[in-house]
Amino acid sequence: MFKPWPFGARRIQSQLVVWTALILVLAVVVTSEIRLQSSVRLLENYLQDRAESEVTTVAKALNLTETRAAALQIPMVDHRLREFVEGDPTLDRMDILQVRDGLSFVLCSSSEEAEDRIQSIPDGLTSQVRTINSERMMVTSLPIEGSDLVLVAFSSLSNIERFQAFNRLLTPAFGVIFTLVATGMLYIMYGRTLSRRFEVLLDGIRRAGAGEPVHIPDDRPDEIGQIGRTLNGLLSQVHSFNAELKREVAAATDDLNKRNFALEETTRQMVALQQQLLQAQRLATVGQMAATFAHEIGSPMSALSVQVQLLLEDRNLSDEQRETLGIIRQQIQTVVQIVSELLRNARRGPSDFVLTDLNETLTTVMRLVQPKLITQRIDAKLDLKPIPPVRGYPLYLQEAFLNVINNASDAMPDGGRVEVKSWFDSAAGLANIQIVDTGPGIDPSVAEHIFDHFVTTKDIGQGTGLGLAIVKEIVENHRGTVRVASNNGTGTSAHITFPVDASVTRAS
Q: How is domain 12-166 classified at the CATH fold level?
């Protein structure tokens, strides 16, 4: 379920406005500074051109190129220099210097304070910016050809500096006003083009999350319109999926009801079979045969219990169906517990034995235990090599293998691996069966007693200790051997051998 944002889609609008305002401020500051520096540079170039033009004009007006220093009428030249300075507001002072023996001194000046303000005599007309008495000035020097005179003009840069300072004060105010106006316009624009449309999208998504039929406006050809069209397509798919899911659930429910009916019928048959078993036990005169029958029914009941457990893992079961299956599983476990307590001491004899394919028997057993192995996440591997048939009773051999594999799976409740191998030892004339698991192994304190009756490593209620004893009895009745090897913590290996039928060996 979607929750509404405290400010709707205004978060994006606010972020865009803030970032835009920051970009505008930065752009205004940088642009103003570049413009100011360009203006200052242009003013300085203009001042330099004007100063150089002025000194050239003054030199021609005073006819300095044809006048020696000794012939200058200094008071008149001073007066003329003052006139030039007063007539040009960009000039601060003009001096005529005389160079003698590499040294210069003021000969004439527009100022009454005679002081030499230049450090060296240039070779030609030059201008440079210098700081004189804490004031930045542009000094323009013009050596007079054919004489030892130098005309120097001093132009103050204070006006340019005041212009620069004023513009730097004006820039923040202009930037603030411009940013506020632009931000306000952008806020309105973002609100109309983004926030309102995102709020429509979010409202549609919230309503869709609540299960309402929704169609999000998607008539505009921009990115938000594309999002709306995409969401509408997804919502349409979700509605179609929900409808299909409801149909599948209805079909699965009907199928489950049929299976439930069949399971109930099976349960009734099992109850009838149990009653027949109880009556047979009352009428039987041989207790060993009754115990044998009880152990025989234990294996299919365990397999049936696994099948019921798989049905219970179906998430589509209703509460009533799950309760019914739980009752069935409980009753099956009760039956298994009852029959597991019985003993069996009598078996069919060699007169009932027939030629039996051990590989086929192993394959049948693996099919029976496959659901249980899958439930416990146990990986099973069959590696069956061709072997001649042996004489035996298939059901008893199947029970022996089933007991060994069940013991292996019970030792790995959290998953593991079971590997079943078969091969023929032609030199010894023996069919070999090996069942290996990756469980915790057998405690050495009980390893030598595992074939005794009522010896088990399982918890109370989990086993009776008859499994491996019955396996040994069945194998020995078939003239075979069984050995179990285990290192505590490294798994268990059961190795079973049977002599093959002599007539089959001779024929091959």
A: Beta-Lactamase (3.30.450)
Q: How do strand 135-143 and strand 149-156 relate by DSSP bridges?
A: antiparallel
- Interatomic CA distance for residues 392 and 480, integer angstroms: 10
pLDDT tens digits, one per residue of 24-38: 778 777 887 788 788
Comma-separated ranges of CATH 3.30.450.20 domains in the chain: 12-166
Strand partners for 136: 131
* 319 Rama sector, left if φ>0, alpha if ψ -120 to 50, beta otherwise: alpha
Structure tokens given for 266: 């099976």
Query: Are 410 and 393 within 8 A, CB to CB?
Result: no
| Helix, strand, coil fractions of the chain, as percent rounded to 5 | 55, 15, 25
Angle at 66 between CA 60 and CA 68, to 5 degrees: 115
Beta-strand pair 481-486/416-425 = unpaired
- In this prediction, residues 290-314 reach a mean pLDDT of 69
Distance between CA atoms of residues 300 and 342, nearest Å: 16
Angle at the Cα of 279 from the Cα atoms of 275 and 282, rounded to 5 degrees: 145
Amino acid at 433: I
- Facing residues of 384 across strands? 422
Tokens for 489, please give them: 């913590």
How far out from the chain centre does Cα 188 lie? Answer: 38
- Give me the torsion for CA of 251, 253, 259, 262, rounded to 10°: -110
User: Which class is 243-346 in CATH?
Assistant: mainly alpha
- Give the list of residues 6+ apart from residue 72 with CB closer than 8 angstroms, or none: 96, 107, 108
Q: Are 328 and 349 in contact (CB under 8 A)?
A: no
CA atoms within 13 A on the CB side of 439: 26
Answer for the pair 438, 380: CB distance below 8 angstroms, yes or no: no
Query: In this structure, which topology does domain 353-508 adopt according to CATH?
Result: Heat Shock Protein 90 (3.30.565)
pLDDT digits (tens, 9 = 90+) for 277-293: 665 455 444 445 545 55
